[in-house]
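seq as requested:
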Amino acid sequence: MDFELEEIPLDTAVADLGEHTLVEFEEGRAILSVDGWGRHVAESRTPQNLRLQGTGLDNRLKGVDVERSVGDVAAFARVSEPLRAFRLPTGTVTYEHSLPEGGREGMVPFLLIGSLIAGVGIASVLNGMWQGLGFAIGLVVLVALLGGAILVSMKLAVSGEVSYQVGETRRKLAELTLPLDVEAAGRQVEEVKEEYGRLLTDLAYRIENPALFDAASPATERLTLALFEWDTTVTGLDDAARVALASTIVSSFREARDHAERIGMDHLPAETRGTAAKALKAAQLAQDPNAAPPEREAARRAAIDLLAGLALYYLPTPDEAREALGGRRLKQLPGRSAS
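struct tokens:
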């Protein structure tokens, strides 16, 4: 019997999650759990402690803002972009270990105590043979043994394949059947297109985060190619392929946007950054509703002139700057259909 999984948007707030949420990444699956869920999370807006568990993964996050989205939290905890998220029925997270039942728990103290005894013994023998030098060497051996034991213990602490148990039924995460939601996949792609288009029209954002609009940037190239593939092949894809491609587009957009915002104007050639910074300030002033009309008009002209001087293909052209500052929608994105 498979568990009933309810897909939820990646922008779902932590405050609206259940106790356990299945998160799918390109490289595998993990469970995001809310500590103490059921006691106070539902009615409290205070920061919560979360835990992301998967095969070889056990990350704890303390004091997470409940307004943050499950997608952002999962991406931060895993350092990888999530594709989909699902609300799990009430159950427990379990592990399937390669060691016999209870063996893992017994192995950790055995390694630590054994290493300590061995290290002290070696240090004593060497000290008796070579006095101070022998003790120093023995101390190094002790530290090395304990360090190795700690590393192995940490590895054991997150080893084993993660499973989820509901009642008497237990399933490995990789065995859970995820529902195919073709309509949701289509909506997700349209949401990416709309957000990408909105950012394209935001002149200041486009100057400040140019990598998102430069197809020469690897992350943006992946997004552009995925959007192009969707627009040219989606009608011929089966449901599974359509959902998979939509997931790729969503994760590629998040990755490209995060990368662009992280490097900012460092993406620009070094010799152009000073001019770009001036264009950014002018664009921000031109769009400031609190500025006087003459001041805004002067800033608008300055932004257009500065961008014309930069002449970088991924920055707004003077015509695009005029349209954006005039509140008009810019042309379609590469790989984006007019639908």
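Residues 98-108, 334-339 have pLDDT under 50 and may be disordered.
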